[in-house]
């Protein structure tokens, strides 16, 4: 057997020599080579298609043709052929592939070809040279620093790296004549420079500041990198496993008209619903307003609707009809994104959309060709080649994802997230509960939204009941520009008054409320209203209060937190909803995850003191459908022992809410007698944003990768401190157009305080089966499909949690080197989800 394999490899090598071809990849399964010329041409075509969405087709094509140029060098060919057995260990050309892994530079050569060709031709060519060279040089690492924080000119160092290390000249001379002609033709074509220069100039809006302009230039560079990354990964995946292409939609989606028809059929069901009430009529009014607004130009819009006002389906109606309208023009829309807070449950909204829009197979199972859920990253930041083939690239017409995933796509470290940026072009992006955007990300978020709308042809809808003041921040150059005509609902005040369904009671007291006192209040409210939701600020509070209520109440008591996987939370919500429909007594204790986009209707809500926006969101789960004769009760209580000091967002929100509630006691008329009304919320946000205005540029300190006090907005724009360091050391200004410390900023960027790692959990039979299948699935096709399914059966762990669970062997890798992990069944239970201590018997899933 070994002798025959050796003969086959020898024959393959002879064929390769006869063709004078170079290998880009060798398929693991059957040793079939993907020749470099094929790979470069196919990636060029794909990257050109992706970049053409913003008018930069030629840029995408040249990036694809040159990105792996260094693979045409003898050093790389000796490495890959030694690693895969094509070169006999006794041959003079054989190298120690393990020792060489990651040390053969094949990404600098193509960048140097562009740099050498354009850099000295003029200022415009220099701009283009840096943009394109950065994308190629960064396609394995994520965007590199132009200037290091120390002031060193890292870009010029990389471009002037010795030819003996990059093999740029050797590699280019080794290319076939066809590839040489194509590369030289593109580099000589004035369209390449003209397109990119015009695009760079178009980034500048009226009254644009220099730092925001440069920030957007950096986003454009990342966008081109995204086009290259996705093209490279897709082509490699299709070669590695040809059947992989069948699993993707490849941007071939159902017609928008088809999806609109399905949604309209659902809307008819609502219109014909028996026993309609005023809330139903107001929801229909909101939905109609969204339909009427859908023919507007692509832009930034606000959809401000009280909780329970039907925002989800109304915004979907806007998005589908907006897409259909613009598809009749050159400004077509490819996708709709729902971006939902990372603490929320996205399954419910995704399931609602899936039930309306998705096709089913003959067995009644959804085909999952329309709606994609992307909860968490189950592959690591620094992916292996195989892991990169399994990562999600948002190839679906309707994508539900989280704020974490969205913001990581724009600013995160590495290549996994950056790959997903280009699908945001020509899309409708709906930010559900936009008030939850992290304060420190506000400046970066605002400019990125302006970039996506003005440069990438996106439409953005800021959707919430409690609209933050993103258009009123300081400095004004970093604010969103929102005029009255950009409000989808012009009758907001009237709508909020008509949709008032609760009375908010301020029940704070000096010593705070104990768990036992809250349990007594819940018991009283259960007798009066029939059902109670309690929303707390921390998982430990949820657990202790749940246990206190269970001891006191005879009703069914449920618990919800992010320790539970989405499928688990969805099951709990369904059970609770069923009881609410049947008007059976039910109590639910939850963290704030239930406040964002969860369609549920309790008779009474108890809310632990938090920001006024959170209190308003919790109130939206009370008497939501207006089916009760009287207003629902919302009780705001201050717990005696909940610790929020380390949760800065919550703590500052509490402080500002206290101020508003105190002022309300003295002068309720100043707030139109409504503790969570529009006027009250505007005052709250004014206080809140003023308190945190200095945080909005995302400050970092000496313990960050920057190694000093700075902010990410500066690192990603003018980078003034690094420039000053360069000038101090070199006694001259850095001679490069773009000076950003991209990689340093991305390493420092965290949407939340620490990156999390997705881990698959053995919840229910399906969770256990997914883990078993992942452990036994060696085909890429099956792994790809399983990882999509595993999104609903995963939890996100902070590094210290992951490390501790791995130490006690509660976490295992599904296959060595896969980067995908699962939790042992001993550490997951039906009440609370995952735990750091064993909570079940000693059985394990994998035998």
Task: Provide a descriptive summary of the structure in words.
With 847 residues, the chain is of the alpha/beta class. The protein is 47% helix and 11% strand. Strands 3-8-7-4-6-5 form a 6-stranded parallel β-sheet, sandwiched between helices.
Task: Please supply descriptive tags for the structure shown above.
alpha/beta, Hypothetical protein af1432, Rossmann fold, 4 domains, six-stranded parallel beta sheet, 34 helices, 11% strand, globular
Q: How do you describe this structure in short?
A:
The chain is an alpha/beta fold. It is 47% helix and 11% strand. Helix 3 (57-66) packs across helix 7 (123-137), helix 6 packs antiparallel against helix 7 and helix 7 (123-137) packs across helix 13.
Helix and strand arrangement:
Elements: H1 2-19, E1 23-26, E2 33-35, H2 36-51, H3 57-66, H4 74-84, H5 97-100, H6 108-118, H7 123-137, H8 154-159, H9 163-166, H10 168-174, H11 177-188, H12 190-202, H13 210-240, H14 244-247, H15 256-271, H16 278-293, E3 300-304, H17 311-327, E4 335-340, H18 347-357, E5 371-374, H19 385-390, E6 398-402, H20 403-411, E7 427-432, H21 442-454, E8 459-464, H22 492-498, E9 502-506, H23 515-529, E10 531-535, H24 539-552, E11 556-560, H25 566-581, E12 586-590, E13 604-608, H26 612-619, E14 632-637, H27 648-666, H28 678-691, E15 699-700, E16 710-711, H29 712-715, H30 720-730, H31 742-748, E17 757-760, H32 764-776, H33 780-790, E18 794-797, H34 799-807, E19 811-813, E20 821-823, E21 828-829, E22 833-834
Parallel strand pairs: 3-8, 4-6, 4-7, 5-6, 7-8, 9-14, 10-12, 10-13, 11-12, 13-14
Antiparallel strand pairs: 1-2, 15-16, 17-18, 19-20, 21-22
Helix pairs in contact: 2-3, 2-13, 3-7, 3-11, 3-13, 6-7, 6-10, 7-12, 7-13, 15-17, 16-17, 23-24, 27-28, 32-33
């Amino acid at each position: 057997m070994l002798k025959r394999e050796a003969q086959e490899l020898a024959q393959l090598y002879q064929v390769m020599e006869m063709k004078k071809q170079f290998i880009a990849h060798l398929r693991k399964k059957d040793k079939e080579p993907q020749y470099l010329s094929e790979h470069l041409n196919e990636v060029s075509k794909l990257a050109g298609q992706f970049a053409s969405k913003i008018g930069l087709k030629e840029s995408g094509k040249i990036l694809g043709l040159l990105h792996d140029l260094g693979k045409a060098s003898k050093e790389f060919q000796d490495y890959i052929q030694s690693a895969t057995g094509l070169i006999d260990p006794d041959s003079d050309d054989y190298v120690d592939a393990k020792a060489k892994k990651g040390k053969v530079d094949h990404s600098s050569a193509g960048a140097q070809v562009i740099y050498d060709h354009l850099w000295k031709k003029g200022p415009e060519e220099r701009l283009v040279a840096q943009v394109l060279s950065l994308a190629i040089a960064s396609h394995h690492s994520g965007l590199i620093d132009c200037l290091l924080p120390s002031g060193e000119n890292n870009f010029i160092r990389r471009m002037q790296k010795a030819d003996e290390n990059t093999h740029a000249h050797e590699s280019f001379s080794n290319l076939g004549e066809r590839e040489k002609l194509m590369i030289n033709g593109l580099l000589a074509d004035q369209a390449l420079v003209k397109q990119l220069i015009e695009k760079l100039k178009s980034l500048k809006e009226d009254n644009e500041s220099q730092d925001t302009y440069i920030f957007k230039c950096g986003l454009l560079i990342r966008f081109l990198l995204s086009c290259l990354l996705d093209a490279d990964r897709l082509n490699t995946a299709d070669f590695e496993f040809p059947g992989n292409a069948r699993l993707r939609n490849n941007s071939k989606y159902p017609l928008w008209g088809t999806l609109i028809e399905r949604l309209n059929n659902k809307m008819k069901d609502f219109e014909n619903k028996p026993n309609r009430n005023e809330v139903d009529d107001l929801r229909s009014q909101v939905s109609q307003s969204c339909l009427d607004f859908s023919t507007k130009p692509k832009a930034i819009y606000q959809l401000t609707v009280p909780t329970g006002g039907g925002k989800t389906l109304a915004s979907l109606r806007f998005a589908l009809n907006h897409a259909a309208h613009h598809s009749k023009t050159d400004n077509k829309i490819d996708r709709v994104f729902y971006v939902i807070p990372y603490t929320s449950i996205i399954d419910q909204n995704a399931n609602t959309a899936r039930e309306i829009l998705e096709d089913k197979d003959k067995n009644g199972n959804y085909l999952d060709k329309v709606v994609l859920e992307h909860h968490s990253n189950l592959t690591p930041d620094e992916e292996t080649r195989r892991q990169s083939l399994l990562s999600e690239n948002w190839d679906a017409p309707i994508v539900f994802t989280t704020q974490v995933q969205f913001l990581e796509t724009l600013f995160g470290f590495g290549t996994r997230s950056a790959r997903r940026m280009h699908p945001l072009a020509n899309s409708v992006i709906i930010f559900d509960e936009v008030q939850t955007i992290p304060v420190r990300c506000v400046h970066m978020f605002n400019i990125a939204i302006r970039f996506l709308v003005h440069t990438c042809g996106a439409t953005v809808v800021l959707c919430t009941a409690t609209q933050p003041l993103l258009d009123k921040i300081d400095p004004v150059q970093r604010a969103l520009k929102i005029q009255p005509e950009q409000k989808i609902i012009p009758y907001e005040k009237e709508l909020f008054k008509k949709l008032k369904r609760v009375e908010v009671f301020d029940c704070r007291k000096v010593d705070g409320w104990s768990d036992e006192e809250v349990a007594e209040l819940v018991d009283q409210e259960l007798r009066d209203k029939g059902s109670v939701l309690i929303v707390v600020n921390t998982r430990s509070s949820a657990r202790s209060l749940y246990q206190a209520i269970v001891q006191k109440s005879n009703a069914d008591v449920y618990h919800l937190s992010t320790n539970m996987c989405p499928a688990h939370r969805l099951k709990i919500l369904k059970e609770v909803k069923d009881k609410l429909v049947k008007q059976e007594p039910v109590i639910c204790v939850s963290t704030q995850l239930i406040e964002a986009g969860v369609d549920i209707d309790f008779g009474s809500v108890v809310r632990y003191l938090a920001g006024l926006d959170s209190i308003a969101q919790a109130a939206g789960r009370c008497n939501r459908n207006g089916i009760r004769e009287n207003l629902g009760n919302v009780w705001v209580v201050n717990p005696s022992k909940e610790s929020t000091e380390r949760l800065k967002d919550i703590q500052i929100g509490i402080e500002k809410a206290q101020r508003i509630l105190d002022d309300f006691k003295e002068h309720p008329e100043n707030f139109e007698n409504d503790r969570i009304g529009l006027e009250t919320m505007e005052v709250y946000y004014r206080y809140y944003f003023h308190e945190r205005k200095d945080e909005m540029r995302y400050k970092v300190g000496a313990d960050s990768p920057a190694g000093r006090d700075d902010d990410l907005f500066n690192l990603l724009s003018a980078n003034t401190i690094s420039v000053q360091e360069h000038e101090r050391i070199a006694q001259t200004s850095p001679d490069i157009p773009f000076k950003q410390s991209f990689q340093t900023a991305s390493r420092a960027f965290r949407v939340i305080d620490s990156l999390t790692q997705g881990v698959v959990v053995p919840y229910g039979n399906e969770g256990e089966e997914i883990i078993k299948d992942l452990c036994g699935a060696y085909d890429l096709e099956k792994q790809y499909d399983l990882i999509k399914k595993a999104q609903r059966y995963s939890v996100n762990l902070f590094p210290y949690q992951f490390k501790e669970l791995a130490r006690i062997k509660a976490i295992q890798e599904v296959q060595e080197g896969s980067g995908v992990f699962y939790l042992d069944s001993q550490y997951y239970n039906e009440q609370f989800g995952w735990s750091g201590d064993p909570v079940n018997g000693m059985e394990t899933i994998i035998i």
